[in-house]
Amino acid sequence: MSTRICIVGDELVAGVGDARGMGWVGRVAARTRAEEPPAFFTLAVPGETSTALAGRWESECNRRFGKEPGHLVVAPGCADLEHGISLARSRLNLANVLDDAASRAIPTFVVGPPPRPGASETGLAGLSEAYADVCGRRRVPYVETFAPLRSHEQWQADVAAGDGVHPGQAGYGLLAWLVLHNGWHSWLGLPEEN
């Protein structure tokens, strides 16, 4: 049976705004070449906070994993900032997810929140740094998306050209590139992409 990968996060996990319907997850899946290609399960909830994500990931993933523990990708968005969740609580929520997954021997990979119009740049930078620290302490791969995209002209233009909130094809392509070039293949035990 192929590896099952559950991806939990906000609407960016589902590719909202992408005319091709692939989002970053579909693009990463298309570039993940293995003898037995992994099965990807996107479990997105629009505008989800880290508190809500921490409360649902296990029951939703258990139904997809079956008897064999699969792999978990956590992609929290910026909703914690909108809902006034403290940085300490956001850190704790992610730490709890990672610790619970580790106790069940579920390999975990985290994709940080990218820049979003209307979200505080300072707040998002702090949230991303906090998530990176939580992952670093646990030796869980973390993909920083905020810093490389905050001033990226193509990212900004792509978001502006769509609904003004979500990226389109080019933006999701940038997110996929960041994931693919920051430890994705080695996390899955596959040779690095050329």
Give the DSSP E fraction (strand runs of 2 or more residues): 5-15%
- Parts with pLDDT < 50 across at least 5 consecutive residues: none
CATH architecture title: 3-Layer(aba) Sandwich
CATH topology heading: Rossmann fold
The rounded Rg comes to 16 Å
Number of domains: 1
- In DSSP terms, counting alpha (H) and pi (I) runs of 4 or more, how many helices? 10
Indicate the overall shape.
globular
Instruction: Please state the structural category.
Output: alpha/beta
Q: Report the count of strand segments.
A: 5
Whole-number average pLDDT?
A: 95
First-to-last CA distance: 26 Å
Tell me the helix content. 40-55%
List keywords for this structure.
single chain, 194 residues, alpha/beta, Rossmann fold, 5-stranded parallel beta sheet, 10 helices, 5 strands, 12% strand
